[in-house]
Amino acid sequence: MTDFSVKKKAYAKINLTLEILGTKRNDGYHDIASVMHKILLCDELEVCGKTAFANGISLETSGNGIPCDERDNLAYKAAEKYLEKYSQKSGKKAEISIKLHKIIPSGAGLAGGSADAACVLRALFETLGVLNEKELFSIGLSLGSDVPFCLSEHPCALCTGRGEIMTILPSLSGVYLSVIFPEEPLITKGIYAEYDKENGEDYGKDNSQKFAYALSENKEKDEILSYMTNDFQALCEKRCESIKKACTMLSRDGAKSLMTGSGSAVYGIFTEREKFEKSKGNTYENGWKRFDYAL
Predict the structure, then answer these.
(1) Residues 181, 47 share a domain
(2) What is the structure's pLDDT at 71?
(3) Which residues make beta-bridge pairs with 270?
(4) Does the predicted TM-score (pTM) go above 0.90?
(5) Do 35 and 162 reside in the same domain of the chain?
(6) Is 72 a catalytic residue?
């Protein structure tokens, strides 16, 4: 394939807040509010393509935690949906080759699959074109609620609706981040229904709005971080004991800790470099993956 070749990085995200704001909507989804932030942990992709007589997609993968069936892979699905729309609008066909090296753990709440999908969509948008931004984000939303944020070029946003309505925020800077994955992928099918059952009509929350305001106004780091919250954490801790254990250990090291997404990865944010550097030497459990970055 010689018409184009694009290499991109698909960045993971963490949820600094995640709140459920209502029961199931008519479309089957829930309204949420979440401050999402991209981090340096990333997958690596190369997307190549050429004009052809028929649409075709090949996917070559390396790394761990990748669905065996390529049609279950969000990067593959993203290319499939883009080419379908591309052909409808242009009357043209294309063959696409995707090479995906997986580094972001799967089943961790880090949006690895969503980031891969967004990366493929952005690569095809920049090379094949034809579609507009609205159509691009519509495809992204059809693939998953985290994909629109991953598609955006901004590192931090307050995401509402299903997650597709974004209010851009400044990055959280001057802090240090540790992400721990207990090597226990968490399947969270039915988690929203379980949350509804246990919490009734408890949807009056505003920590996400408070976090967004404090971040926008450049308040003290401790005040900003005091609004961190994840409505799913208590439920997920019942399914995976390592979540609570990892959060407790990060907290003991001096971090403000929280689960991201629907787990099972957790993260700790340190405001003091000395405590962060000291914590980096603590792996806690054999086999747990840890990623450390400065924000």
Answers:
(1) no
(2) 65
(3) 176
(4) yes
(5) yes
(6) no
